[in-house]
């Protein structure tokens, strides 16, 4: 909802404008008011104002000065200046300060409403989706290195795209590689940090290594480098147009040694490198990188400044696993990394989406968990699930709230489950229990908030019942409270306030002889004129007509 503040040192003018605009439902404005520039700034505090409708000539702080203060805080605010002086100099000054319009008070309500409608249209244009996307496109180049790394790391973690999507992502992220041709990869590791041991200096070291590698490689091959984790980096390499893979492999081998020497000489940091002598399809890059990481992990010689070409087999490892087993393992670990996606569904009490996603993630290939090695993979997977749910329960202090409904032993011990299927069912049911619990709590908290608001409205009907005041009462933002209330009750919060005011007014009209202006004040309306118009709009009667008809009805009932 767009927030507009009306400021004028004449209370009658402010109240008249407020009442008039409240009746124009198509404007859909949240309105507030102030009788001076200083009061306006005090009322606003840190709260954003979208439209400022202000008199120019006011004592103490002029409308121009007020606009200056507000535009410093909220540059997107639209200022509409009102004045009783037909002074072109004022108009020029207003326009220079970003004023949407300049309206003479003598022009009447229609001119003011037109100016407000124009301001609303401009605001909605600024926040239009197309505008936001266009601005994002203009700024995205600043984030390209980070986005490029994020995409390629996901790719290495077995998040493989289709060729069509890969082509699109490569183009969007300006990745200077061919998504259709095979790729050669190298894995590098920083063996010692030297003078770059502080966390703040480590990104600088990675950046320096990438610059050195680019110096030696980019002139002869197509080359992209990314930081993979805290101590390792990955190179992606393809031949330049017209070159063959044999030439590219020789250049990579020669350049790798030069990069190592330059890092040791210039940065005083030793690095190790491992690369396969043959390219592979993009779909097998994840497997290739895992193999190279393993080669670096095996350690040869001193385990530092290694330069490994091709596949080195560790006798203790036996034969290599089949591609099927390898991809199944990678797929399992990829799914484990998505465990956090389940949090949102549990937090929001969305049981069915939780169950659907959980079952998608943990339909594990039975072959993977069979045999002696499979037993340890099952333990690995169980430990991830156990840690995820244990952390979730602890961070939200749910053990104390759920009490005996959660038995911690099956959560912590795989041996408590008769089979892997039973363990998966246990974790699924645990997540469903948590989603149910959080859903009930959300409804309780929401009903409590609405109950507090209703109590406050009835208790302080004669006081400030603006959306801002009510949102502060329950520690929610005004727009969110407005949406939440309508979702839960089916009506707007301002409609409810009006309903309570009219009902209270009916009671006062039927049970006493108070004056209309006294009743207006008691139900929180500042003028008898506005009360009369509102009452007639809701009931079809003026307050006096309603009083007379109520009395006539009472006499008839006697």
Automatic annotation (TrEMBL):
Specify the HTH araC/xylS-type domain's residue ranges. 451-549
Q: Which InterPro entries match?
A: CheY-like_superfamily, Homeodomain-like_sf, HTH_AraC, HTH_AraC-typ_CS, Sig_transdc_resp-reg_receiver, Tscrpt_reg_AraC-type_HTH
Keyword Hydrolase in annotation: no
Q: Which residues carry this modification: 4-aspartylphosphate?
A: 55
Q: Where is the Response regulatory domain?
A: 3-120
Do you know which SUPFAM superfamilies this protein is assigned to?
CheY-like, Homeodomain-like
> Which Gene3D superfamilies did the record assign?
3.40.50.2300, Homeodomain-like
Q: Which domain of life is it from?
A: Bacteria
Alphabetically list the UniProt keywords. DNA-binding, Phosphoprotein, Transcription, Transcription regulation
* Pfam family for this entry, one: Response_reg
Q: Can you name this protein?
A: Response regulator
């Amino acid at each position: 909802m767009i927030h507009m503040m009306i400021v004028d040192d004449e209370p009658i003018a402010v109240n008249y404008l407020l009442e008039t605009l409240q009746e124009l439902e198509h404007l859909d404005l949240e309105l507030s008011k102030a009788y001076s520039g200083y009061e306006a700034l005090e009322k606003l505090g840190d709260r954003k104002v979208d439209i400022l409708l202000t008199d120019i000539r006011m004592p103490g702080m002029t409308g121009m000065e007020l606009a200056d203060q507000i535009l410093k805080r909220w540059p997107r605010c639209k200022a509409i200046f009102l004045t009783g002086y037909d002074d072109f100099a004022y108009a020029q000054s207003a326009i220079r300060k970003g004023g949407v319009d300049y309206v003479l008070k003598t022009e009447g309500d229609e001119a003011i409403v037109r100016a407000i409608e124009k301001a609303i249209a401009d605001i909605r244009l600024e926040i239009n989706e197309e505008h936001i996307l266009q601005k994002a496109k203009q700024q995205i180049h600043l984030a390209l290195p980070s986005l490029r790394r994020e995409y390629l790391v996901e790719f290495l973690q077995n998040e493989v795209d289709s060729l069509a999507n890969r082509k699109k992502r490569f183009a969007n992220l300006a990745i200077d590689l061919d998504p259709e041709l095979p790729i050669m990869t190298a894995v590098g590791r920083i063996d010692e940090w030297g003078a770059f041991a502080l966390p703040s200096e480590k990104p600088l070291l990675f950046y320096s290594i990438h610059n050195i590698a680019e110096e030696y490689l980019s002139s002869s091959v197509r080359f992209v480098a990314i930081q993979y984790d805290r101590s390792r980096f990955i190179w992606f390499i393809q031949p330049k147009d017209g070159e063959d893979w044999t030439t590219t492999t020789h250049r990579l081998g020669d350049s790798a040694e030069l990069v190592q020497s330059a890092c040791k000489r210039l940065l005083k940091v030793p690095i190790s490198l491992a690369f396969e002598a043959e390219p592979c399809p993009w779909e097998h890059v994840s497997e290739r990188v895992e193999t190279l990481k393993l080669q670096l992990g095996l350690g040869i010689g001193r385990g530092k400044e290694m330069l490994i070409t091709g596949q080195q087999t560790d006798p203790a490892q036996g034969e290599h696993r089949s591609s099927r087993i390898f991809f199944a393992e990678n797929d399992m670990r990829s799914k484990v990394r998505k465990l956090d996606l389940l949090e949102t569904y549990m937090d929001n009490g969305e049981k069915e989406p939780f169950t659907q996603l959980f079952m998608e993630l943990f339909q594990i290939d039975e072959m993977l968990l069979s045999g002696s090695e499979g037993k340890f993979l099952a333990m690995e997977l169980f430990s991830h699930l156990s840690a995820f749910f244990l952390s979730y329960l602890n961070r939200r202090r749910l053990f104390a709230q759920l009490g005996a409904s959660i038995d911690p032993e099956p959560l912590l011990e795989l041996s408590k489950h008769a089979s892997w299927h039973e363990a998966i069912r246990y974790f699924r049911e645990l997540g469903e229990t948590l989603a149910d619990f959080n859903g009930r709590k959300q409804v309780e908290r929401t009903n409590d908030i609405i109950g507090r608001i209703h109590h406050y409205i009835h208790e302080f009907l004669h006081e400030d019942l603006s959306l801002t005041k009510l949102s502060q009462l329950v520690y929610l933002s005004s727009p969110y409270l407005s949406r939440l209330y309508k979702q839960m009750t089916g009506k707007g919060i301002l409609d409810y306030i009006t309903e309570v005011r009219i009902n209270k007014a009916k009671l006062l009209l039927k049970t006493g002889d108070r004056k209309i202006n006294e009743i207006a004040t008691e139900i929180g309306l500042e003028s008898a004129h506005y009360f009369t118009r509102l009452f007639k709009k809701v009931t079809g009667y003026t307050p006096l007509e309603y009083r007379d008809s109520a009395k006539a009805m009472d006499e008839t009932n006697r």
